[in-house]
From TrEMBL:
The protein's name in its UniProt record: Ribonuclease T2-like
One BP term from GO: RNA catabolic process
Keywords, comma-separated and alphabetical: Disulfide bond, Signal
One GO location term (cellular component): extracellular region
Active site: 133, 170, 174
The keyword Plastid appears for this protein: no
Signal peptide: 1-18
GO terms, molecular function: ribonuclease T2 activity; RNA binding
RNase T2-like C-terminal domain span: 332-437
Record flagged with keyword Disulfide bond: yes
Length: 443
């Protein structure tokens, strides 16, 4: 029955084909798991620790402090009241007290439930749910051990849970470091009991953390165009969780969230108590974070950054740059208009305000680059800056308080695509694949 319960939840587990090995730091991913260094997940600056079994003396002391469990409980902690145990990683924790380290997790008493958001070609799990990575036991100071007991490692977990190789990695690397899952902590021999408990607790905790729904409730949904700030994402998650988690990004895209717990009474029969992050921190940028949809490949993946707030030219002769800017307040990184009036990722051209012809609207200007005055080509409605334009034929631009440009009331511009290494024409009007406004930013 335990295995069947897990089987129904396997779509939420990250498949091995979609995931190799993820480390907290930006370490290179090993090509072969056997080449993982023993300290690959330890805090920077700490000496490497050999992945051997926990100190046998400590295990013996835990056993000696633990009476045989009562009937009806899985672990020896059932002999005590919940009030007999303090939360791990708090002043009340007492690994030498009732039940020893079976009932007070130590040294790995800070539990992290980690989730992945795998999008694009690496998509995994339902499109409207994050996926479970694992349950990690950290030391109370956020350092950690791994591969703690080779004698309990498994290589054939597929036959136990009918899952995949990722489960073997999670159990061997993290599960063996949870002291309350030691075989001595169970009231009676139970084949693979500690392994099944580990995955059951991982899955049940994961189910209590609907990150997708929490984000969506605050309007944060996967999209190929919009970007979000770190403050927005953390606010949405903290509001529902009660404590601030850690978010992680890869190449500017939201990819992980870590929730933190203390344990009370061990993992088997005890509880996980929510707490705030310790030691670990987000590596996401403050702004411009992408949250990409699963199972879609954007032909022009955005590499957006927050828009620059512009301003209208205050007089003729003011030089500035012109940035295509999306309606969500973002723009393509390092992309702007160059001297001939096309959109390009490279060095921006200077656009200088010029006094317009008599009778033009108050506060309006024409613009000029090294290529000439700027205007709209009648043949295809394309924006251009060229010597062929004269004061009579060049466009007259009006500007709002934030530098957004318009021509005769038309403020929408667009292109057929986002520039890569090529130069992309800019057209007046919204009937294009990529729509934006043009913003003048004085220099």
């Amino acid at each position: 029955m335990l295995a069947l319960t897990l089987l129904s939840l396997l779509p939420l587990l990250v498949p091995a084909s979609a995931l190799t090995v993820r480390t907290r730091a930006a370490d290179p991913v090993p090509a072969d798991l056997t080449h993982l260094s023993n300290g690959a997940r330890m805090a920077r600056g700490l000496p490497l620790r050999k992945p051997i079994a926990r100190d046998e003396g400590a295990r013996l002391r835990a056993r000696q402090a633990t009476p045989s469990g009562t009937v009806g409980t899985l672990s020896v902690c059932g002999n005590y009241q919940a009030s007999d145990f303090g939360q791990s990683c708090t002043a009340a924790a007492n690994p030498a007290g009732p039940g020893g380290t079976c009932c007070t997790d130590s040294p790995g008493g800070l539990m992290l439930l980690t989730q992945f958001w795998d999008a694009g070609a690496a998509s995994a799990g339902p499109a409207n749910s994050w996926t479970l990575h694992g349950l990690w036991p950290d030391n109370c100071d956020s350092t950690y051990e791994e591969y703690c007991d080779p004698s309990r490692e498994r290589s054939a977990i597929r036959s136990i849970l009918t899952n995949n190789g990722q489960t073997a990695l999670e159990w061997n690397k993290h599960g063996t470091c949870i002291s309350s899952l030691d075989k001595a902590c169970y009231t009676a021999p139970r084949e693979n009991g500690e392994l099944i408990t580990y995955f059951q607790r991982s899955v049940s905790t994961f189910q209590s953390l609907p990150s997708y729904d929490w984000l969506a409730a605050d309007g944060i949904i996967p999209t190929n165009n919009a970007t979000y700030t770190s403050a927005q994402i953390l606010s949405a998650l903290t509001k529902s969780y009660g404590f601030t988690p850690v978010i992680r990004c890869q190449s500017g895209s939201l990819s992980e969230v870590w929730y933190f717990y203390n344990s009370k009474g061990g993992i088997v029969d005890g509880s996980l108590v929510k707490t705030g992050a310790v030691g670990d921190s987000s590596n996401c940028p403050a702004t411009g974070i992408r949250y990409l949809p699963k199972y879609t490949v954007n032909p022009n993946p955005p590499s957006t950054v927050p828009a620059i707030i512009g301003a209208p030219p205050s007089a003729a002769g003011v030089r500035g740059f012109v940035y295509p800017t999306y309606s969500d307040g973002s723009r393509e990184d390092r992309a702007c208009l160059i001297r001939v009036g096309v959109w390009f990722k490279g060095t921006c051209a200077g656009y200088t305000s010029v006094t317009p012809p008599a009778g033009s609207p108050a506060g309006s200007f024409q613009l000029q680059t090294g290529g000439g005055l700027c205007g709209i080509l009648a043949a295809d409605n394309r924006f251009s800056c060229a010597a062929s334009f004269t004061a009579a034929t060049a466009a007259v631009f009006q500007f709002n308080a934030e530098g957004e440009m318009s021509i005769m009331g038309q403020e929408a511009f667009g292109s057929t695509k986002v520039p890569g290494t090529d130069q992309v024409p800019v057209y007046l009007g919204p009937a294009q694949a990529v729509d934006y406004s043009l913003v003048f930013v004085p220099q």
